[in-house]
Design brief:
There is one protein chain. By secondary structure, the protein is an alpha/beta fold. 41% of the residues lie in helices and 14% in strands. It is built from 13 helices and ten strands. The strands form two sheets. Strands 1-10-7-6-5-4-3-2 form an eight-stranded parallel sheet. The longest helix has 18 residues. It is globular, with a radius of gyration of 18 Å. 56% of the residues are buried.
Length: 337
């Protein structure tokens, strides 16, 4: 089965993805606690602008405004019955923007976690998780998404359920986990373990990797930790480290820092490179220029990563067999945007 993302990857050594969704929408007036997915219906022009930002900055792929568009998350807003509809509308707007770009641009249907704990530790069974993800996947497919983009996942069980949903929908998919807890996901998965999990899936993703987490340096270390793989790797790191200031979260990563991160991510082995929380079109423009203008080099050492992008949030990411320890630069968080 061929798909638009695989076809584009055959023609390019690397692709640039988009940046933050939440950061942009909050700047447009989204209130904390509101569902961004409602804007796919009520503020269509703003969602068009959200998508056009990365496209005009040079991104080859952007994610739809559907991160929290599954029934489990929308239930918090009394809108669980609208999961398929709001995902379809988010993808339809994306399809319109991509088709008007004048060059190949991939519409990636964002699918975030359910927010529930998977069995046996929690109440969410595999079958129910598959059903929740499948409903959203069908909406994204109907709206014209080229690929499903499962992101910010912590539990291997949820990753497997999303992959099964993608198979049922007959859709190619990508998946990223968030390694935000001393180099591991919140549920304890390391990057090396993710590679093993992906290798055993019946319906394998087109690409996999990491998003969000703590900062750019940790993201590069995670990419290096994936090890040998036959899949393209994804790197979607935050724009620096989040700091709480004047009642808001701010990211200290400049466009120049993110440009250096992008080149370093490619050298570390990533093929699909972008930003997550705090990453604006200004960051993306610098990242695109750096990737265009800088020849690929050798994989960076951890010392070089720390020197150029800042220190790591823990002494180990777990891939060396050691239990991770945290240092004073770390912060525990899990979010998107």
């Amino acid at each position: 089965m061929t798909d638009a993302l695989t076809d584009l990857l055959k023609t390019r050594d690397w692709l640039l993805t988009d940046g933050a969704t939440g950061t942009t929408l909050f700047n447009m007036g989204l209130e904390s606690g509101d569902s961004p997915e409602f804007w796919n219906d009520t503020r269509v022009d703003d969602i068009r602008a959200l998508y056009r930002g990365p496209v005009e900055a040079g991104s080859d792929l952007f994610l739809t405004n559907t991160f929290g568009g599954n029934a489990a998350r929308l239930k918090l807003h009394g809108a669980q019955a609208r999961a398929r509809e709001l995902s379809r509308k988010g993808a339809e707007i994306g399809r319109e923007v991509a088709d008007a770009a004048g060059r190949p641009v991939i519409v990636a249907g964002s699918m975030g976690p359910t927010g529930e704990i998977m069995a046996p530790m929690g109440p969410l069974t595999h079958d129910l998780a598959v059903e929740i993800f499948h409903e959203q996947a069908e909406g994204l497919k109907e709206g014209g998404a080229d690929v499903l983009w499962v992101e910010t996942i912590s539990a291997p069980e949820e990753l497997r359920a999303a992959g099964e949903a993608a198979r049922l929908a007959g859709m190619p998919w990508c998946v990223t986990m968030s390694f935000d807890t001393a180099g591991r996901t919140m549920m304890g998965t390391t990057s090396a373990e993710m590679t093993r999990i992906v290798g055993k899936l019946a319906h394998k993703p087109v690409a996999y990797g990491a998003n969000c987490g703590v900062g750019a340096s940790d993201l590069i270390r995670t990419v290096l930790g994936f090890g040998e793989t036959d899949r393209p790797l994804i790197a979607k790191g935050n724009a620096g480290i989040p700091k709480f200031h004047d009642g808001h979260i701010h990211y200290n990563g400049t466009p120049e820092l993110m440009a250096e991160y992008a080149v370093m991510a490619r050298n570390a082995g990533a093929t699909i490179i972008g930003g997550c929380c705090g990453t604006t079109p200004d960051h993306l423009r610098k990242m695109r220029a750096a990737l265009d203008e800088t020849p690929k080099g050798p994989a960076p050492t951890l010392d070089h990563v720390a020197e150029r992008l800042g220190g790591f949030s823990s002494g180990s990411d777990g891939t060396d067999g050691n239990a991770p320890t945290r240092d004073r630069t770390g912060s525990r968080r899990r979010a998107r945007g």
